[in-house]
Write a structure and sequence with these properties.
lipid biosynthesis; membrane; globular; alpha/beta; eight-stranded mixed sheet; transmembrane helix; PLD-like_dom; PLipase_D/transphosphatidylase; Endonuclease, Chain A; 485 residues; seven-stranded mixed sheet; single chain
Length: 485
């Protein structure tokens, strides 16, 4: 009996270390950033067995076999769609400003399409005014409405959006609604999905959260885009979820969420539609056939706004948003302003920002003083010392949870959308960013950012250097896990 116990115990120990060795080799064989690899090795060695399970669940980008096959099948169709769109040469930009030239070259070579002109763009900073405009546009829709959001939470003015969407479906407008399963969990537990489907709205729960799927795909991979497309002509995107700030996460103690959206009219809506239709087929298996109005934008007139849209996530060019951010930062000559609610940058982005400040660019980073994620808040703090020493001015916004994601370079080049400056947005989730080469829009964005700064507290480098030692220990601890956040 003792010998049997010894043999079983030995086999268990051998199996355990063999499992650790296999996972270690798998981590090392995957070409990933060294900090990320080291963080994962730290997790599996510090947390025996639990760390291995966490890695198997969250360590690799896996959308599941079915979605992978659908993405593979839709790719030739999407490429043909882009080629058809290129026949309309009058909607494509032939030149860009000096600060924007490199980033638009990147987008053209990696995504197959240059920047689009003929767009009207409006910057929206008030949630209720945004909702009012959206309800109006939905009410005027004649053919189709496509919507995707990470969070849709019923209550307040959001119920009016739902009513407008159902009314549009009843009068014959084709309405498609994709919502993330995790972000919109409360919505899918309400009566609204049934009401909407009964009215004719096609409601899809994206990346369904289920214990059965736990080991079949990565559960923390989320659909984080926010888009509304109307009649292939009007579009919205930005940081705002479909929530009423008066009711959303009030118990978090961070105040109301402060967001930014853009409303556009023009060919950029077609480019965003290509992204939406790819997402739709990956999730549902249903192909949305293009019609003439998708690819023949005769009614578009010239304007000075050149816009490019960048999409990320499985099936899209890997790391392109990260590359675009780096190019934008290195292109700055006078001033760089960044707003983000979650600041856990890659080493490349951190070095680029510090280098910009050290070569004389006036660099401002605006982050919320209070964050709804304790892990991200502490991890973010670990980067501030290096930034402050480089001369970066860091502002802590005190008027609520600043949820706006924006980058402004020399008041000319703007990046706005859904992307946070953290690993999850840059390398994992389905995200969208607009790259806007327009002086007027840049000036408007600058005014908004200046207002954010006016409602912020500037971090003093001397005061920061004297913070308690226990805080520094916690910051460094969370820094080790920052590649995983």
């Amino acid at each position: 009996m003792i010998m049997l116990y010894t043999v079983i115990n030995g086999l268990l120990i051998f199996s355990y270390w063999l499992l650790i060795a296999c996972v270690t080799v798998r981590i090392l064989m995957k070409r990933r950033a060294v900090p990320s690899a080291m963080a994962w090795l730290l997790v599996i060695y510090i947390l025996p067995l639990v760390g291995i399970i966490i890695y198997l669940l969250l360590g690799e980008l896996n959308i599941g076999k079915r979605r992978y096959e659908r993405n593979k099948a839709v790719s030739p169709f999407i490429n043909q769609w882009i080629n058809n769109l290129k026949d309309c040469q009058h909607i494509f930009a032939t030149q860009n400003s000096e600060v924007a030239c490199s980033i638009f070259q990147l987008c053209e070579h990696r995504q197959g399409m240059s920047g689009l002109i003929g767009n009207k763009i409006e910057l929206l900073t008030n949630t209720y005014e945004t909702i009012k405009l959206l309800i109006r546009d939905i009410g005027l829709a004649q053919r189709n409405i496509e919507i995707v959001f990470y969070i849709w939470q019923a209550g307040g003015v959001i119920d009016q959006v739902a009513e407008a969407l159902m009314a549009a479906a009843r009068r014959g407008v084709l309405c498609r609604l994709m919502l993330d399963s995790a972000g919109s969990a409360h919505f899918f537990c309400s009566h609204y999905p049934t009401m909407m489907r009964d009215a004719g709205v096609q409601v899809v729960e994206v990346l369904h959260v289920s214990i059965l799927c736990l080991f079949l795909r990565r559960m923390d991979l989320r659909q984080h885009r926010k888009m509304v497309l109307i009649d292939n002509y009007i579009s919205y995107t930005g940081s705002m979820n479909m929530v009423d700030p008066r009711y959303f996460k009030q118990k978090a103690g961070v105040g109301q969420w402060i967001d930014m959206m853009t409303r556009m009219e023009g060919p950029i809506t077609i480019a965003m539609g290509i992204i939406y239709y790819r997402d739709w087929e990956i999730e549902t298996g249903e192909r949305i056939q293009s019609s003439a109005e998708h690819i023949i934008p005769d009614k578009y007139t010239y304007s000075g706004n050149t816009i490019q849209v960048i999409a990320s996530g499985p099936g899209f060019p890997e790391g392109v948003i990260h590359q675009a951010l780096l190019i934008a930062i290195y292109a700055a000559r006078k001033k760089l302003v960044i707003t983000t609610p979650y600041f856990v940058p890659s080493d490349d982005l951190l070095n680029a920002i510090c280098t910009a400040a050290q070569r004389g660019v006036k660099v401002h980073i605006i982050i919320p003083r209070d964050n709804d994620s304790m892990l991200v808040e502490w991890a973010s703090r670990s980067f501030l010392s290096e930034l402050l020493e480089a001369g970066v001015r860091i502002h802590q916004f005190e008027g609520g949870l600043l949820h706006t994601k924006s980058v402004l370079v020399d008041n000319q080049l703007s990046l706005v959308g859904t992307v946070n400056l953290d690993m999850r947005s840059l390398w994992l989730n389905f995200e969208i960013t607009l790259v806007i080469d327009a002086k007027a829009f840049g000036n408007n964005l600058a005014l908004v950012q200046e207002d954010y700064i006016a409602h912020s507290r500037l971090i003093d480098v001397m005061v920061w250097s004297k913070r308690p030692y226990w805080q520094r220990i916690i910051e460094r601890l969370f820094y080790f896990f920052s590649p995983l956040l």
